[in-house]
Design a protein that fits this description.
The protein has 129 residues and is mainly α. It has five helices and two strands. It has a two-stranded antiparallel sheet with strand order 1-2. Residues 38-87 form the Tyrosine specific protein phosphatases domain.
Length: 129
C-alpha cells in the first residue's frame, strides 16, 4: 500500500492484463485487498476492460463493504454494468471468496443465482461449461 497527498491511500494488486492463468487463483491477493477494502474511504478499480478480473474483485469488495450476499451483489452490479463476469473460472473463484467471507447467502439464493446466471449465459451466448 502506498499513499500520496493528492491521491490518498492506494493499493496496486499485481494482476497484469492476460493473467492470471486459469489455474492460478484470481483471489490469491484477497487477504491484502480485503484489508484495504475494509479501511479505504473510497475504492476505484481499474483494468484494461473491466469485465472479468476487476469486475470479480470489485464485486467481492462491494459485497464485503455493504455486507450483501452474492445474489444481491450480482444483481446490483449487473444492473449498473451489464456484460460483466463472463469468465466462468473467475466466477467460481468469486463464489469461493464470498463463501469464505460468509456472504454466499442461503441455499435458496444460490439456486436463484444459478438460474439467473444460466438465463444470462443463454441470452449472451456463453459456451456450455
Amino acid at each position: 500500500m502506498g499513499s500520496s497527498l493528492n491521491q490518498g491511500p492506494f493499493l496496486r494488486s499485481p494482476i497484469e492484463y492476460g493473467t492470471p492463468p486459469i489455474k492460478k487463483a484470481l483471489f490469491a491477493h484477497w487477504p491484502e485487498v480485503s484489508a484495504f477494502v475494509r479501511s479505504a474511504p473510497v475504492l476505484l478499480f481499474h483494468c484494461q476492460a473491466g469485465v472479468n478480473r476487476s469486475a470479480s474483485l470489485a464485486l467481492a469488495a462491494y459485497a464485503v463493504r455493504e455486507s450483501k450476499t452474492l445474489l444481491a451483489s450480482v444483481r446490483d452490479m449487473m444492473a449498473e454494468r451489464p456484460g460483466i463476469l463472463k469468465n466462468w473460472h473467475f466466477n467460481r473463484s468469486l463464489v469461493k471468496c464470498l463463501r469464505d467471507e460468509g456472504l454466499l447467502g442461503s441455499a435458496e439464493d444460490v439456486e436463484v443465482l444459478r438460474h439467473e446466471v444460466a438465463a444470462y449465459e443463454q441470452q449472451v451466448g456463453f459456451p456450455k461449461h
